[in-house]
């Protein structure tokens, strides 16, 4: 069987469904192909279930700290792990159903279930069906990378997907990879009551951030009883009577971590290896990401790539913004580009890390004259009142242009309060605009004008 459409979208992740909505509303006949779960990673095995779990972990943590606030919680605080997991599952299921309902309600849209593979630049095979269109949009996402570490094939390991199927709390969770996925799961499982060890190959946690950020994160995780093993250059696994033995040190006889469960959180790989891209002539880079230009177009005319599969963002909001760029350019006569996007993201440990733009290290490496200001969260009234004063706020600016280059807030509500700076940078406004804003009291954002006033020329390294 074969069919021709005005456009084909592959993947119902964070960009595909929204684009289907815009294209069909513009009168196009569109086919959307999904091989697995509607909503993709974020809804099913990423942001939504993990942030629901983070919320449960925060409640457990606060309940244990109740006495600090003058609140008595009768007896020991315990966590009903199956109920915690069921709550996260419900959040996911509701969101997945909403995406499904949304798509099935779109006039002019044909939803096809199955794996899509190119057979020609304008043609895809989905099961028995051959579909053709002059415009093809790839939104195929990615999956957990499992590097061929010694012994990995001989153990039962968890990924961000399978960990969500657990029905009993691990006794001891070893988390390999100390970045977003690893740290979010590490802290929540510790708060649920598991013993947790984070094993990271690099010399510090979340090593793409500044050293002061890495250090502060390590301290707050260790303060909750999470063991951290950094510089683990010889990671290897072996089955053990108590679960899995993880070798972390190159020295023979060095102590191993013996855990009941191992979570691999060592990055992602794009779902581009089984897409038949060679049949279409679509170029990929050495890591398998689809090469796109500033408007998300591939090297083959009529094919675009959105979201995690293009390697130009690894977040839900960047995938969605890819859709917005494509829709604006194709349907609204606009000229939007990737390079207009100010990079922002958050790490959802508690308290969270909110980030925008360059790190201080990146700004220094750029060779510009810099202004830097840093204030501890102990100076933020709201943090004091809420009894959560770990962390700091940091702002880095160009001394000549008086434009912000980047900012970080590791602290309570940091994921929200970073938006003042993100918006300032997106609007390309100078520091003065932040200095003279009148933020609401008592908020974390209210310290930004003080942080601006504290800017000093950066000292040499
Ligand atoms: C544990 C975890 C937590 C996260 N937390 C956050 C967070 O808090 N905030 C944030 O911004 N980001 C977070 N992310 C990242 C976020 O989930 C991704 O960036 C986002 O989901 C990417 O969306 P996407 O549309 O590119 O791809 P996906 O959501 O992965 O969607 C791709 C879809 O394509 C389908 N597909 C693939 N190949 C084919 C094919 N050949 N044929 C048909 N269908 C196909 C897949 O089944 C899938 O449904 C998290 C990720 C993980 C793993
Ligand atoms: N809050 C959020 O927005 C959020 C949350 C979770 C995931 N995500 C997305 O998911 C993506 C994947 O997250 P991630 O944490 O898996 O990947 P990552 O690429 O951010 O980090 C991987 C970590 O594993 C370590 N590592 C890699 N290979 C290793 C090896 N062989 N041995 C030991 N350590 C090794 C790296 O040094 C790094 O610290 C991120 O890019 C992020 O965009 C986002």
Automatic annotation (TrEMBL):
* Name of the protein this chain belongs to: FAD-containing oxidoreductase
Q: Where is the FAD/NAD(P)-binding domain?
A: 5-321
Q: Which cofactor does it need?
A: FAD
Annotated InterPro entries: FAD/NAD-bd_sf, FAD/NAD-binding_dom, FAD/NAD-linked_Rdtase_dimer_sf, Pyr_nuc-diS_OxRdtase, Pyr_nucl-diS_OxRdtase_dimer, Pyr_OxRdtase_I_AS
Q: Matching Gene3D superfamilies, A to Z? A: 3.30.390.30, FAD/NAD(P)-binding domain
Where is the Pyridine nucleotide-disulphide oxidoreductase dimerisation domain positioned along the sequence?
Answer: 346-449
What family is this protein classified in?
Answer: Belongs to the class-I pyridine nucleotide-disulfide oxidoreductase family.
Record keyword rRNA-binding present: no
UniProt keyword annotations, A-Z: Disulfide bond, FAD, Flavoprotein, NADP, Oxidoreductase, Redox-active center
């Amino acid at each position: 069987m074969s069919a021709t459409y005005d456009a084909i979208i592959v993947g119902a992740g964070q960009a595909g469904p929204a684009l289907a909505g815009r294209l069909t509303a513009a009168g196009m006949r569109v086919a959307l192909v999904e091989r697995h779960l509607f909503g993709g990673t974020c809804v099913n095995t990423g942001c939504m279930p993990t942030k629901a779990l983070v919320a449960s972990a925060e409640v457990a943590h606060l309940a244990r700290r109740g006495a600090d606030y003058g609140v008595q919680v009768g007896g020991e605080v315990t966590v009903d792990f199956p109920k915690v997991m069921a709550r996260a599952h419900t959040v996911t299921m509701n969101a997945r159903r909403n995406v499904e309902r949304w798509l099935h309600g779109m006039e002019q849209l044909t939803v096809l279930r199955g794996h899509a593979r190119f057979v020609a630049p304008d043609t895809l095979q989905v099961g028995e069906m051959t579909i053709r269109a002059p415009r093809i949009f790839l939104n195929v996402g990615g999956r957990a990378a499992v590097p061929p570490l010694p012994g990995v094939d001989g153990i039962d390991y968890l990924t961000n997907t399978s960990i969500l199927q657990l029905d009993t709390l691990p006794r001891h969770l070893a988390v390999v990879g100390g970045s977003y996925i690893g740290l979010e799961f590490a802290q929540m499982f510790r708060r649920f009551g598991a013993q947790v060890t984070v094993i990271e190959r690099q010399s510090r946690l979340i090593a793409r951030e500044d050293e002061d950020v890495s250090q502060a994160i390590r301290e707050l995780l260790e303060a909750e009883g999470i063991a951290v093993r950094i510089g683990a250059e010889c990671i290897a696994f072996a089955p053990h009577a108590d679960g899995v033995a993880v070798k972390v040190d190159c020295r023979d006889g060095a102590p191993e971590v013996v855990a009941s469960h191992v979570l691999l959180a060592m990055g992602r790989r794009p779902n581009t290896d089984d897409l038949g891209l060679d049949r279409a002539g679509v170029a990929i880079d050495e890591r398998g990401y689809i090469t796109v230009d500033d408007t998300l177009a591939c090297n083959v005319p009529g094919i675009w790539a959105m979201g995690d599969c293009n390697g130009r963002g690894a977040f839900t909001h960047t995938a969605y913004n890819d859709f917005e760029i494509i829709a604006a350019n194709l349907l609204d006569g606009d000229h939007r580009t990737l390079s207009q996007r100010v990079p922002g993201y958050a790490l959802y440990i508690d308290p969270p890390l909110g980030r925008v733009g360059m790190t201080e290290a990146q700004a220094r490496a750029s060779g510009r004259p810099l202004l830097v200001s840093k204030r501890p969260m102990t100076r933020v009234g709201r943090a004091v009142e809420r009894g959560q004063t770990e962390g700091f706020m940091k702002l880095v600016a160009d001394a000549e242009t008086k434009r912000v280059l980047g900012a970080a807030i590791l602290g309570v509500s940091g994921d929200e309060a970073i938006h003042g700076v993100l918006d300032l940078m997106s609007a390309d406004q100078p520091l003065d605009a932040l200095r003279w804003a009148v933020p609401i009291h008592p908020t974390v954002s209210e310290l930004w004008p003080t942080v601006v006033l504290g800017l000093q020329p950066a000292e040499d390294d």
